[in-house]
Structures are given as structure tokens and as C-alpha cells.
Write a sequence for this structure.
């Protein structure tokens, strides 16, 4: 039985992109999430709000993708005054604790309260990326875990074996397409 991917809803207005994540944010939804964030960034959105009120859980792959995007924005905006970057709205205690334990919480502003969107907001439900190949999923998982280890060296013991397994699995997938 496969775990259903998180549902992603997008609201945009001006420079703001709000992504509402509903359900379990896991490795299967991380590819669509990564694609969506990159598309929004490429379209010129500069402020990102992730509504996590209905996100029950994030696995380490999804957290690695999120942290990688947070790091990318932090580096790109180094020194810019008044830039919000990424805000996490209403993360539950478990998600906040995971972000803290993985040493990536500093990449985000955590906000609690109601979702207040501008009146001229446009809502979109992004089309999912075509079914990713096993190789794409494995590569994404490997990159996400390496990102977590790069951001916080205390994650190396947590994910060293996982990344070794994923790297070997990726090698096998490339050798036997």
C-alpha cells in the first residue's frame, strides 16, 4: 500500500506565493514540491509562505528539499534588507521539533495565526509532475539527505548509512536502466 502524497495548493499575489501543504509531506510529494518552488521562483515570486496547518508530517526527504530551498534563498538574499524569504505558518509541534533537531529551523521564520491572504489572490492546484522514475526518486532522496548533512554536520551520523544506500541504489539503477 502506497502512502498518498501531500496535496499542494498554491495562492499567488504580487511577489507572494503561498503553498498550502495538506496531508503527509513525504518523498513521493517532494519532487512535485521541489518543481513547484523552482517554478514559482523562476516566475519572479520572492516571498514564500508555507501554510502547514494541515500538514501532519514531513519525512526527512521532504524536509531536506525544504531546507535546500530555504538555504538557496538565504544565500541568494544575503544582505538584502526587508526580504522575508520563507515563512512557515502554523507548523505542528512535531514538524517544528524535526526542523530544530535537524539544525535547519534557522532558515525559516515560523509564524502562528490565521492565514491572511490579499483579496486579489489567485488560487491554483498545480498539476503533478508525471510519474517520476525510480532513479529520479532515488536521486531526489539522496540530494535531500546530503543537503541536511551539509547544513548541519550533526546530521551526518543520522543519514550517513541512508545516503550510502541511496548512492549505491542510484549506481545500480544507472547501470541497469
Amino acid at each position: 500500500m502506497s502512502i498518498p502524497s501531500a496535496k499542494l495548493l498554491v495562492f499567488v499575489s504580487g511577489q507572494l506565493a503561498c503553498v498550502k501543504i495538506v496531508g503527509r509531506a513525504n518523498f513521493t510529494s517532494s519532487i512535485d514540491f521541489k518543481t513547484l518552488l523552482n517554478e514559482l521562483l523562476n516566475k519572479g515570486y520572492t516571498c514564500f509562505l508555507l501554510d502547514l496547518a494541515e500538514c501532519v508530517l514531513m519525512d526527512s526527504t521532504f524536509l531536506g528539499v525544504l531546507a535546500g530551498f530555504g538555504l538557496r534563498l538565504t544565500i541568494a538574499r544575503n544582505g538584502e534588507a526587508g526580504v522575508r524569504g520563507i515563512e512557515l505558518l502554523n507548523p505542528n509541534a512535531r514538524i517544528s521539533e524535526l526542523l530544530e533537531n535537524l539544525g535547519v529551523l534557522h532558515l525559516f521564520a515560523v509564524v502562528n495565526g490565521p492565514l491572511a491572504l490579499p483579496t486579489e489572490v489567485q488560487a491554483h492546484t498545480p498539476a503533478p509532475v508525471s510519474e517520476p522514475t525510480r532513479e529520479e526518486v532515488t536521486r531526489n532522496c539522496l540530494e535531500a539527505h546530503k543537503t541536511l548533512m551539509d547544513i548541519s554536520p550533526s546530521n551526518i551520523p543520522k543519514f550517513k548509512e541512508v545516503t550510502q544506500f541511496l548512492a549505491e541504489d542510484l549506481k545500480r539503477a544507472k547501470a541497469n536502466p
